[in-house]
Amino acid sequence: MEIKDSGSVVLTAYHSYAPSRLPRVEQSFVPELAAASPPSGHAVSSRKSIPRCRRINRMLSNESLHPPTFSRSNSQASVDSTSMEDFWCEVESIKENSEGGQEEQTVTEVKPADEGELEAEWLQDVGLSTLISGAEEEDGQALLSTLTRTQAAAVQKRYNTYTQTMRKKNKHSVRDVRDIFGVAESPTPFEPVPVSLVPANGVQVPGKKPVWKAVNSNSCLDCGLDKDTPSVAEELSFEVSFSESITEIPKEKEGLKSQRFKKEDSSLTKFIVRKSRFGLTEVGDLSVEDMKKIRYLSLIELTAFYDALGIELKRNRTDKVKGRENGLFGVPLTVLLENDQKKLPGIKVPLIFQKLLQKLEETGLETEGILRVPGSASRVKNLRQELESKFYDDTFDWDQVRNNDAAGLLKMFIRDLPSPLFTVEYLPAFIALVERISKIKLQLQALHLLIMLLPDANRDTAKAFLIFLKKVVANEGKNKMSLWNVSMIVAPNLFIYKGKRSNQEEMQAAATTAHIVRLLIRYQDILWTVPSFLITQVRKMNEAAINNTKKQPIFDKSMRKLLRRKTLERERPEKIEVATSPRTSKTLPTSPSSRRKSDIPEGVIRVHAPLHSKVSMAIQLNGQTKAKDILARFHCENSHDSPGSLKIQNQSLYEIGGNIGQHCLDPDAYMLDLYHANPHAEWVIKPKTS
């Protein structure tokens, strides 16, 4: 498969950025702006008579003639051979819209953290709150047992800081770190036992090599544009922990050197991800419970990753902001989805957001300057009010909405969210991945882990938004919106903080945030893929939980009765079809004993398909059997049922139970390898939830 490419918070209210309040920008930052400014002799007396972007250009070029009021950090990003004109024009447009009264003036403020509180919150967010409470819970023990060397060191570092702080405060007795990690009293520093590398989506068998194997070159995830991209692509691996793969710590001067970006698309590396024998797994392919564990592990891994690079992972602490409980704009994503799911169960992206994207995709992708050219502020205000009253009644006339006005509504929806799309807590981590990390590959790995940390509603909405932006860039020939242009416009809508300490610090990061958006758009196909090493750790956690459960006797009479009935049902004789390939099969009589799971021949799985006329089939696996072969076999058996053939064709094969909750399989996944990784799983064919 080849896929072509194609703190301090965010966005809850806006300052009125007067020209005198805008940060002074160095001349090298905007080399084209001074030349773009009109001569003083042609100045117009009325400020409003000057086009908005020209006013910004003049202001920036004039400001740059004077010494800056602040010293730029050595890590501050800058841009080669390009101006930030689009960024500042968008800031001015946002300011004017907020002055017009359309946007909710809700401000999310960052709270100062007491000593030790950040570490306590971190331990809680990674699922290790039991280390603080002192309780001996199995979930925490299972999580600790899966950690790599660098991950364990990251946990121990935070726990050490927490315990030392608590002892100073004399709040209560805390567990010694040696009780948790089993460290003997010794003057030597803690060195966890290195963990053997494990196969993706599988479990390492002692004494055996990982089951991962290379696949054909066309079976990969390819992220890069067709034109102006490097001829040599760099390969990414999801098999090994990112933090474990860091072999060299960047020098301090190198980590703090000035980042200089180029707006050309060719400056971005082209990456490919080879599919392992287990295929690739997207974020929507796992169960809710397993994704919760992925978040725990992602935060631990991100912390270990930053530790390995010598970067402090900073997080913001904020008061929870209560948004509106009804309506469309200024309503939390979770509330919007709860309201929309009453109308359309299972929906993952708010209906209003979907409708705005649909409107723009149908009529606006080829509009020149889409997203950049602002719509009428008065029309956008009136459209917003009309949407609030008519949208859910299906009486709103979408034909009256001009493309630029629809783009303005889309950006306004994002800005008005009570909590930002990419969360309050990790804005410093987003900024640090660009300003403190020089290599694109390491930036992408950090960004990948941050995407894994997003709540479901935020991630699904961000995914829909980035897919749309990718389509805008794909139509650059007609709409004149390059990847850099789109990034410039979107960045202030996502990453400008609206708290008390905004203005200079956040505005300095203009090029930084634009580069983040550029990475998000370009490499989004990679970012929605769950790293295989995290899935491996989830499997180990689930296995540990299963082992702990087996140690507990079942005393419930009703449960014993249910198990007895299920055993009798399983022992009824029947005939099963053993298929060795999609084209050949044979029917074999089976005795009750042969149908017991423990007596099933090696390499044979039973696949259930509730929506097919043939609801169950035993499949003999070999080294070349893929998930798509099993789907093809069931489709062939049901091909005579023409009315439902299309519905059956759109189904997927799922791995359920054993050491995974639920896992929608990649069609190219090799089934025998998955069978060995999870021999106790059930295999079910059903529609994939979108």
Structure, explained:
With 690 residues, the protein is of the alpha/beta class. Among the domains are: 200 residues, Phosphatidylinositol 3-kinase, Chain A; 89 residues, Phosphatidylinositol 3-kinase Catalytic Subunit, Chain A, domain 1 (Ubiquitin-like (UB roll)), CATH 3.10.20.90. The protein contains 28 helices and twelve strands. The strands form three sheets. Strands 7-6-9-8-12-10-11 form a seven-stranded mixed sheet. Strands 2-5-3 form a three-stranded mixed sheet. Strand 6 and strand 7 form a beta hairpin. It starts with 32 loop residues before the first helix and ends with a strand.
What layout of secondary structure does this protein have?
Blueprint: H1 33-36, H2 52-63, E1 78-80, H3 85-99, H4 117-125, H5 130-133, H6 138-145, H7 149-169, H8 177-181, E2 220-223, E3 234-236, H9 252-255, E4 260-262, E5 271-274, H10 288-308, H11 333-341, H12 351-363, H13 377-390, H14 403-415, H15 427-435, H16 440-453, H17 456-474, H18 476-479, H19 483-495, H20 504-508, H21 510-522, H22 524-527, H23 532-550, H24 557-570, E6 574-579, E7 585-590, H25 592-595, E8 604-608, E9 616-620, H26 627-637, H27 645-649, E10 651-657, E11 660-664, H28 671-677, E12 682-687
Parallel strand pairs: 1-4, 3-5, 6-9, 8-12
Antiparallel strand pairs: 2-5, 6-7, 8-9, 10-11, 10-12
Helix pairs in contact: 2-3, 3-19, 4-7, 6-23, 7-10, 10-16, 10-23, 12-14, 12-17, 13-14, 15-16, 15-21, 19-21
